Structures are given as structure tokens and as C-alpha cells.
């Protein structure tokens, strides 16, 4: 033990200036490392829609963060909500450049991201406000207010009644 303390620069109960200097440097590094946050990965480019909550940019599949859109083939009342969700996403994407900030990677290896149009429109928020997706509570509370707004105003599927996309997938796929 005495040898270990000697290697640290501690002699008996006396701190050497070298030891104190190393300790201060170490603490500063720990503070800096603890407060520094990695920059999120940003993917940008022209996109195409796979469905109402999944797009592709430069060959990378991206799942929109915090939403669950109605599935292709899903019907909400008399509305083909799954097909409408895909068409709406295609319209939101348009021909412009999207910018997607990665939040996670899902179990299928897809990037999970918040994506915005070049004019700043949050695609996830817009899908939820149109009533063509729901807030995916299991992963985020980001779009709960938008979902409440869509429900109160009977937008999209909220005007017809529906099974959640998650429940629909479990019973139809």
C-alpha cells in the first residue's frame, strides 16, 4: 500500500504538489467528459417514403422518432388510413431535402430520427396533427400535445375510430 501511495506522490499523510496537480487535472477531465455531449448524427438528402413513418435517404432506412403511423392496408372506420398515411408522407417529403437528427437505432437496424423539411416542418409532428399517426408513447412523449389536438379536432383517423397501429400489427401481421 505504501508503495502504491508513493507512486501516486503521496508520502505518509502529505500531498505533494505533483499529486495535487494530477488530481486537479483528473477532476477537470471528469467534469468536462461528464458535461460534453456527442453531436447527434444528422442525415440529409432527398427521400422517398416506404410508409407513413419510414423513409429512405441515400439508402438508409429511417424510422420517424416518436410516432406510429397507420399501416398499409389498415382501415379506420371507412377511411383507408394506412394508404392515406403513406400518401401524406410522400407529400410532406416532396422533392426537397430533408434533415434527420438521429435519436436511436431500432431493433431492425433502422436509424430512428426526428426529420424536418428544408422549411423546418417536423414530419412526425405533421403526421400526428393530421391524424395519420399516433404518438408512440412507449418511446417518447414528444407528440402527445399534437395527438390531443388532432383528436379534439377530429383530424384523420380520429374522425372515424381506429385500432392503434401497434394493435393492428399484432392482429394482422
Automatic annotation (TrEMBL):
<feature type="domain" description="TNase-like">
    <location>
        <begin position="50"/>
        <end position="160"/>
    </location>
</feature>
<dbReference type="InterPro" id="IPR035437">
    <property type="entry name" value="SNase_OB-fold_sf"/>
</dbReference>
<dbReference type="InterPro" id="IPR016071">
    <property type="entry name" value="Staphylococal_nuclease_OB-fold"/>
</dbReference>
<protein>
    <submittedName>
        <fullName>Nuclease family protein</fullName>
    </submittedName>
</protein>
<dbReference type="Pfam" id="PF00565">
    <property type="entry name" value="SNase"/>
</dbReference>
Amino acid at each position: 500500500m505504501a508503495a502504491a501511495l508513493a507512486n501516486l506522490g503521496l508520502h505518509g499523510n502529505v500531498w505533494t504538489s505533483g499529486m495535487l496537480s494530477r488530481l486537479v487535472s483528473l477532476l477537470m477531465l471528469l467534469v468536462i467528459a461528464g458535461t460534453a455531449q456527442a453531436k447527434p448524427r444528422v442525415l440529409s438528402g432527398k427521400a422517398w417514403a416506404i410508409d407513413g413513418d419510414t423513409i429512405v435517404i441515400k439508402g438508409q432506412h429511417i424510422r420517424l422518432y416518436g410516432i406510429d403511423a397507420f399501416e398499409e392496408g389498415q382501415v379506420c372506420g371507412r377511411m383507408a388510413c394506412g394508404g392515406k398515411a403513406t400518401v401524406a408522407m410522400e407529400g410532406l417529403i416532396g422533392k426537397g431535402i430533408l434533415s434527420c437528427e438521429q435519436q436511436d437505432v431500432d431493433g431492425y437496424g433502422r436509424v430512428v430520427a426526428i426529420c424536418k423539411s428544408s422549411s423546418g416542418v417536423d414530419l412526425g409532428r405533421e403526421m400526428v396533427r393530421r391524424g395519420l399517426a399516433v404518438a408512440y408513447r412507449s418511446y417518447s412523449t414528444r407528440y402527445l400535445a399534437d395527438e390531443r389536438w388532432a383528436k379534439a379536432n377530429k383530424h384523420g383517423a380520429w374522425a372515424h375510430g381506429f385500432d392503434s397501429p401497434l394493435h393492428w400489427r399484432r392482429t394482422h401481421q
